[in-house]
Amino acid sequence: MILSVTLSLLILITMGQLPPAKVSPITFKNETPIPVLVQVKSIFNGQLLRDRPYLIKPGETSPPIQIPGTKSVSISDSKSLRPLVQLPLPQTNEELLIAIVGTEKSMKLELRKPTN
Q1: Which of 18, 42, 61, 112 is deepest in the core (most CB within 10 A)?
Q2: What is the C-alpha separation between 94 and 100, in angstroms, rounded?
Q3: H helices then E strands: how many in the chain?
């Protein structure tokens, strides 16, 4: 058993493919009075990755976003696409719930405890 696992890992390494790293999900909750567009970007293995943008209406929550690497988020006004917030996200191996709070003129992000 140990030999087959070791052999499988050796084959993956020699082929240049490693098993995917664990990626913890990030969820955004819109606690503002306006709909926002959220997009997470990351740098992974020297490449820029972009997750699809999510329209989040007031009071709604995004689906869990799972993207590897060093992440940042862009939050825009859904109507004008004007950027409202652009910030790096904390590096963690735990699930994150990030609340978008404030108004259109003054918006910020707050970490919350995920409800599981």
Answers
A1: 42
A2: 19
A3: 1, 8
